[in-house]
Structure formats: C-alpha cells, structure tokens
Design goal:
mainly alpha, Ferritin
Amino acid sequence: MIPRGPKFVSTSKTAGRDGERMSFSIERYKEESRKLDTTGIDWKAVTASPLSKGDLFCLHYMMDIENHVPLYLSHLLVTRACMDPILTAFLACWNYEELWHGENLGKFLNLYGIEFDTQDRIANVRANLGFQNSVSILSTMLGSWLLKDFSAVYLTIGAINELSTLTGYGALIRKSGHPVLQDLLGRIIKDERRHYAFYVNSAKEWLTENEKAQRVDRWMLDRFWVPVGQGVKTQEQVDALALYLFDDEQGEEELLTIDEKIGKLPGLSGIKLMSKALYAARERRRMNPDWAWRLIDNEEWAVAPPRKSPIVELTTRRTHASASAMTALEGP
C-alpha cells in the first residue's frame, strides 16, 4: 500500500455526540470565527452565587491552559504539518478563539473577587517552564520531520484534548451550579465542539487505510500522551483537577465515553487514556491521602514568579516603578 501524504479536511462529517452528525467546513469556519460572544452574560451577578474551592481551582487551571495556547501553537508551526494551508487557517482561528476563552475566564475570576494581573500571571506561567518549553519545541520539530505520519499523532491528541476540555467544562457546570458560569462555559463549549470536529475529522482522514500511521499513532499515544495541561501544570495539579471533576460515577462514565469515541478512530480500538489517567490519580491519592486535595484545601492557585527568570527579562515588560526610573534616567 502506498502511504498517504498529508491530508486535512476542508469539508467532512463524522458521528458526533449522542449519534448526531458533526460536520466541519474550513471555509465556513474562517467566515464564522470570532471572539467569544458574551452578549447578555449577567456579569453583575457573578458574586450572587458561591463557588467552592474546587470550582476556583479548576477555573484557574482552565484559564492558565487556555492562555497557554499560543505556546502550543509555536510547537505546531515548526512541524511539517504547518505546510498545509487548511491546517494553518484552522490554527490561526483556533488560537484567536482560545485567547478569548482565557480572557473571559480571567474576567469571571476578577469579578468574583480574586485579584491578579492577567498579563503577569500568563508571563509567570510561561517563565516557570524554563528550558522545558525549548526542549519540547525541539523534540516536536525533530519528531515531525523524522516521522512522516507524525501529524496523525498531533491530530489525534488535538481531538482528545478538545473533547476532554469541553467535557471538563461540562463537569464544572454540573459541579458548581453557578448560573453565570454555566452561561459562560456553555458558550466556550460551543467553540470547543467546532475545534473537536476539525481534529477528529482530520485524524480520521489521515488514519483511514493507512496502517503505518495507525501503528505510529497508537505507539506514541500509549507511551507519551498526557492529559491537557500536564507539563504546564504539575502531576499533582493535574490529579487535583481530575479527581474534583471526575471522581464519581458520572465523571468516570464521561471519561470512559471519551475513550470510546477516540477508540472509533482507525487503529485505536480499545484504547484507554482518560480513564487510565483517572485511575492513576486515584492510586496516587490512595498512597497519599493528602495528595491533590491539599492543593484545593490550601487554595494553591496562585502562580509564583520564577526565581531566575524575572518577567521583565522575558517579556520586556516594565513595572510602573521601573518605567518611572527609566524616565528619570533618560531625562526630559
């Protein structure tokens, strides 16, 4: 069999949630892509309903990962996949939409009464990665150019990440019972479903009748896949999110459903990733009863600045004090 070359969907359909047909058209997506529409959200009522510590922990985690999308994008643009105009068109819109997810989650938290400077927090999260980000970019680039079917792995991971993200938002709606948060997350979920439709259709196109790609995809996922946010967040932080949102009968069933949907892609029958991650988190908590929950109980959602990489050096941003000092040095 002659291996297929790169292929991303411009228009396609696949079975979606509860059996409905999910379609994706890149042309329609480009025309309709825009910042998150928050018209009608009752921002003034954010403080009218309480949130638990677990809810707040999850919101900070989700905001940080949404705001980290530009760095994920930087990884993708050094791979051979970036040569495909359909993919780059999608990524441009995807990046912009995810930006506004993070912005509005931050706005919600600020209105709830949690004070932080959004730009400082984003810079701290990125700076704390240290050399990890550079190593990740280099390894992604190398893997892409060594493995012709590396894009199949990226597309499958994209599908898993988008599906698990929208599932996580749904779980937080259920857990929190907060009406304004439900409204905001419901709108974000609609974006994530479109993102998932692109990834899952493209992955299916790449993997169909391509046994080599299926083998590479399965081998890489079994060995290197991690839940959304791991790497930016620690293992314990990832486990805290997973245990808070999914450590009940309904939550576990939702993760098994994700595994089932991803398992319908060619070559991935029976794969267990999300449920396996939950079971591993439960085991770590069994070995240490304080594991994960202590982060929530202690309200550990602040992001400390890195010790050796001041924000001013990494981003060229200056505090008001340093800007005033610079003005004084420069003179009139």
